[in-house]
Amino acid sequence: MKVIDQSQPWGASIVNRQAVWTLVVVSVASFMAGLDNLVVTTALPAIRADLGGGLADLEWTVSAYTLTFAVLLMLGAALGDRFGRRRMFLIGMTVFTLGSAAAALAPNIGTLIAARAVQGIGAAVAMPLTLTLLAAAVPAARRGAALGIWSAVSGLAVSVGPLIGGSLTEHFSWQWIFWVNVPVGLALLPIARAKLAESRGENPRLDVPGTLLVSTGLFGIVLGLVRGNPDGWTDPLVLASLVGGVLLLLAFVGYELRWAQRPMLPMRLFRGRAFSAVNAASLLMYLGMFGSIFLISQYFQGVGGYTPEQAGLRMLPWTGMPLLVSPLAGLLIDRIGGRPLVVTGLALQALGLAGYALLIDHSAGYGPQVPVMVVCGIGMSLYFAPTAGLVMASVRPAEQGIASGANNAMREVGGALGVAVLSAVFSAQGGYDSAAAFTDGVVPALLVGAAVVAAGAVAAALVPRRHGIRAAAKVADHAAPTAAPAGRA
Prior knowledge:
Layout: H1 13-38, H2 44-51, H3 55-83, H4 85-104, H5 109-137, H6 143-171, H7 176-179, H8 181-195, H9 208-231, H10 236-258, H11 273-302, H12 308-314, H13 316-319, H14 322-336, H15 338-361, H16 366-393, H17 400-429, H18 435-460, H19 469-477
Helix pairs in contact: 1-5, 1-6, 1-8, 3-4, 3-5, 3-9, 3-17, 4-5, 4-8, 5-17, 6-12, 6-14, 6-16, 9-10, 9-17, 11-12, 11-15, 11-16, 11-17, 11-18, 14-15, 14-16, 15-16, 15-18, 16-19, 17-18
């Protein structure tokens, strides 16, 4: 049995090796999972030309991943607590790698959507465990820095997804946006097995009814939103999906409050203002950002006439900004706290989206769009860096695993809803028929995205001022450990 003494300084050789290897493994895994959120956006025209399908099918190539990822994240955390976090992390990464290979080999759009769902299942099992594995391996005194690196890498993956997707699509084929995961996954698995320490939670039980209720409820809502425009909002399937989804989510809340012995998401966590506010901000941020990038990446190709790689490059003033701003934001967290950074970041993101919509509406060329994309990128960077610390500081250390899963779930649900909601606005006002029709649809969609992100800034302002990464480290340093090491079985 390998027990890590976290009272030793960061420089102690055993702690240093364990912490560094864990940070490398979980950061690479988080990058892979985050990359697949938006890597397909600049490849959508190529996928459509090769496999066919309409707007709803293209939405599902994105949403099938984000939705399964979202609804199973908390189950993934519970499985890790029950059966071993290292073991379930390895299983999740294996499923993700196999799903990537299946997506690359997909002969039609339906098979691609199914493979994307398999990718999401694997990512949902592995990703909530990255934070608990990291927290167990890194000394409390250095946990803030490790969380900052983990958050920056995860955010960078989302940011560079359109560029990587566009470059691979143009120079190779759209299949390579999935093939690239396979060698990385195959290399990561033996390293993770050799270097990660095993641990489990305290007497965990799986909340099967809660998982079924929240999963089917979210699926119903997203299905209704995706099919609303093509089938009509009064279509029986659309109405049944939306109403049924809402009722199932209400049933989930009631079950978790009244009957669940070991709830997958304890509702009492939402009584804390910090936890509720940061999760609401995350949901709204990803809703506005994901939906906007989904449409803008297609706008560059459909209206601007750019190739997939050129479209990705032209988004770099936005998506590449975390490389420059996130390190600075990390330095500011301990000085001024995470709350003002998140509020400022969301406000800038909302301002940038609104400005982008106005520029597109007035047929401005690419040059005038660059400053507003820089504003969006700075805003996104300021949001990414402190969020993990705010979540960790909002709950007790014993609840940090489920809190991490809940926040990741909120973000992924926001992403799935963002694609569905903004695409619904786009379809109601425009379409793919011409450049003018595309512009007519994308302008109101971006304005809706800006309004949603602005609401996220208001939610983030409700986070208490004292919360931040330093607070999280302080809480962790003075509390009992969340899990006992379980060796390397």
